[in-house]
Design brief:
The chain is of the alpha/beta class. Helices cover about 35% and strands about 15% of the residues. The chain is built from 20 helices and 18 strands. The strands form 3 sheets. Strands 5-6-7-4-8-9-3-10 form an 8-stranded mixed β-sheet, with helices on both faces. Strands 11, 12, 13, 14, 15, 16, 17 and 18 form an 8-stranded mixed β-sheet that branches. A two-stranded antiparallel sheet has the order 1-2. Strand 15, helix 16 and strand 16 form a beta-alpha-beta unit. Helix 3 crosses helix 4. The radius of gyration is 28 Å and the shape is elongated.
Length: about 575
């Protein structure tokens, strides 16, 4: 197969992105801008230590294009790199420093499904195994589970089996668990490795780690161990490839934020390459004209009618979220969630704080946990806007210092990395010891009551009887709200109604957003719903506290709410006639 002019392809791609021939999103445009700026820097900036080597780029691109596809319509045909792939490969492998050492040690590529990212990653893995000149190279395809890890590795294995010349040149052998290159004194291996697979991942001498679908990693352990394992290598590569996810507190979002900061020029990580293919904020996701932004291989890897077909099948909010996440590479916390993160974010009004509600009446909800889960309260405030009652909610969440400081898993769960950031920002309050201090929470509730009186505050009775008595002793009207479908379903449906009416607002608290958008629901035969957590690590406690508070506030979703005198119960209202599951601890 004759070698193509990859540098020309790369420059044409950049030109197409800049001129609009290629419909590109802002992050793709910024990645191109960074590359072109670096080309200028190598000529004009004497402090810039890197230069672009066409020879190095040609070496890896020609290696990849001598491999073969192994499935689908392209099976047994040579791998022909799309222009965006030439750009990515050229960037990762083309730049070198003054000593001829490859510049980029880390790379992050985020792109929609069906654009060939796993096939490209497999080809890069094979190059790092036997084409990079590294003796004893260790290449790993790492993922959240073993089946996912084997996708990239299996692609690489089949490419080897289809290429007798490659096997002969590099002495490559394949087994059920590894690909091995045995040429000369070399003994390089390529293996799949997974978060859920037993055995230690420490001690790896990593030359290349391909981390597939990072958004599915439950924590940063596998990524960080792989990244730490490259320290003894001269030209290592940690390559993250992923589609957008829903968990904005995980390792994938952490790495994505690094890339965004690099592209915007906010961070100067010269040895980190990143590119993100996604539609832009403000784009109408329903408009096919913006879909190419997230799908640079549209028209090549798949038929242009493919996405149209998927779009026309959308019937539910969950299907919409999956389409936007998988096919348009949007970070949407809602494929299985009660409320999508994009929908929740639209309710934010950071300009309004609790100070605006001093002297107002309020309603509250508490959800308590003493050890691993979050604990705290959410406060609901009514506000009259254009003759209608609107509701503003504010969360106060707590965690004990033992959880904040933990490094390893406890009871099968690991502390999210963002807890440290939330403690620092004040969105999560740390209490001393290994048990969350309920006394501190009670004190803060009483202080909040002084600023804006609770008419009622609901609480989950589990492990909270003494807590409720403490609230009562301070003059609060504490109402027991049992964790049952009825009343929680009614409160959740009311919250949905508020969102549809544009009458629900919050201050953008990230802990509350995380918890609310972690909540999953499944309707029963009577259309009832109930808050459930997807797994132990994804907490919903602040969201449950908000729902408990809603059971109290929804009873006063009327103009009469502004006439309430806190602490005076409504003598004409019979709780048993409304819901048998509400139990008044004090009325």
């Amino acid at each position: 197969m004759s070698e193509r002019n990859y540098l020309e392809i790369m420059h044409q791609y950049c030109k197409d992105v800049q001129t609009g021939v290629r419909i590109a999103g802002k992050f793709e445009k910024l990645a191109v801008k960074r590359f072109l700026n670096d080309l200028k820097r190598q000529e004009n900036d004497h402090d810039f230590p890197y230069s672009f080597s066409e020879e190095r780029m040609n070496h890896v691109c020609s290696f990849i294009e001598n491999l073969h596809h192994w499935k689908g319509a392209l099976a047994r045909k040579h791998f022909i790199l799309d222009p965006w792939q030439v750009f990515v490969v050229g960037n990762i492998f083309g730049w070198e420093d003054e000593d001829g050492i490859r510049r980029f040690t880390d790379a992050y590529v985020e792109i929609s499904k069906k654009n060939g990212k796993s096939t490209l990653a497999a080809a890069i893995g094979l190059y790092m195994l036997c084409g990079d000149g590294e003796a004893g190279a260790e290449v790993y395809a790492a993922a959240a589970n073993y089946d996912q890890a084997k996708i990239v590795w299996q692609d690489a294995k089949q490419m080897v089996l289809l290429n007798a010349e490659l096997r002969a040149t590099f002495g490559i052998e394949t087994t059920q668990y590894e690909i091995r290159s045995t040429t000369g004194n070399d003994n390089s291996i390529f293996r799949p490795i997974a978060t859920d697979k037993e055995g230690s991942k420490d001690g790896k001498n990593v030359h290349c780690a391909i981390l597939d679908e990072i958004h599915a990693h439950k924590d940063s352990e596998t990524y960080d161990i792989m990244a730490d394992g490259v320290i003894a290598r001269r030209e290592p590569l940690v390559l993250g490839i992923t589609t957008a996810g829903s968990n904005k507190i995980g390792v994938c979002w952490r790495e994505r934020c690094k890339v965004v900061d690099i592209l915007y020029g906010k961070d100067n990580l010269e040895r980190y390459f990143g590119i993100i293919f996604t539609i832009d904020k403000g784009d109408d996701w329903r408009n096919p004209a913006v879909w190419p932004k997230a799908n640079p291989s549209m028209g090549v890897a798949f038929d242009t009618n493919y996405l149209q077909g998927k779009y026309k099948k959308i019937k539910t909010a969950a299907e919409e979220s999956r389409f936007r996440q998988k096919s348009l590479n949007e970070w949407v916390q809602g494929a299985d969630s009660w409320i999508a993160s994009s929908e929740w974010e639209m309710l934010a009004d950071p300009s309004v704080t609790e100070d605006h509600f001093k002297g107002s009446v309020a309603f509250g909800g508490c959800d308590l946990a003493s050890k691993l889960d979050l604990a705290g309260f959410v406060k609901w405030y009514p506000k009259l806007i254009d003759g209608r009652v609107h509701w503003y909610i504010f969360a106060h969440q707590y965690i004990n210092e033992h959880v904040v400081n933990q490094r390893r898993q406890t009871d099968g769960q690991k502390r999210p990395d963002e807890y440290l950031d939330w403690v620092e920002s004040g969105h999560l309050i740390e209490t001393p010891g290994n048990v969350t201090n309920f006394g501190r929470i009670c004190t803060d509730i009483v202080e909040s009551h002084v600023n804006a009186n609770f008419y009622e505050i609901g609480f989950d009775p589990f492990n909270a009887s003494q807590f409720a008595e403490d609230l009562i002793s301070h003059g609060l009207d504490a109402i027991e709200v049992r964790q049952q479908v009825n009343p929680l379903s009614i409160a959740m449906r009311w919250i949905e109604e508020l969102i549809r009416d544009g009458r629900l607002h919050h201050d953008g608290n990230p802990v509350l957003q995380w918890c609310v958008c972690n909540i999953e629901v499944k309707e029963d035969n009577n259309s009832n719903i109930f808050p459930r957590k997807p797994d132990k690590a994804r907490k919903i406690d602040a969201g449950v506290a908000a729902i408990i508070g809603a059971t109290r506030a929804m009873l006063w979703d009327k103009l009469d709410v502004f006439d309430l005198v806190p602490g005076e119960g409504d003598a004409d209202w019979d709780v048993d006639d409304y819901l048998n599951n509400f139990v008044a601890v004090r009325r």
